[in-house]
Here is the input.
Amino acid sequence: MNDITQVNAAADPVDQAVNIKISDSAAEYLKALVDKQESQGMGIRIFVEKPGTPYAECCMAYCPESEVDESDHVIDYDNFNVYLKNDSLAYLVDAEVDYNKDRFGGQLTFRAPKSKVPQLGENASLEEQIFHVLQAEINPMLASHGGNVSLEGLREDNTVAVLRFGGGCQGCASVDLTLKEGVEKTLTERFPELKKVVDATDHTYTENAYY
Here is the structure.
């Protein structure tokens, strides 16, 4: 094997190919881990948890044959397989897995530079786009105050976004200020088709009174 093994796995006939680099030392280390397992046909699954958000995490786990999914993309090594989870493929582009030995044994590193980047296709709906902005940009700021915000839905031909605040923001007296000066400004600037952004608990908005 070369020092770095590069694998191209097409996520879909029309999607961009996934390029993941797994070094020889990492492959050997993973094989050693698999060899210690009693289960026959044990493999390694590589995936991204909470992909496309600031909370994305690069993950690896043992994958017995019984848990292999038909949609998995398989990297075939000697005596074991690495399975790429299908819904993580877009976030594994340019990912690298390496293992460096040191005096304490060694360290396995897994880097996926696009794991936190929202992957929105050309046909992404307005709702999907708003969701990603909330998750990737707004919630990280609210998290510092123990709060969060989610999209309840769109109203009036997708011109009104109804949001629900939670955590530290729920029932907070400054929600109106947060909504007007922060969230609403960000969303209306990013999506000109939005005419209004309202809080789900705002009963002055008649279309949303049942909240």
The two ends are 61 Å apart (CA to CA). The longest strand covers residues 147-155. The longest helix spans residues 126-143.
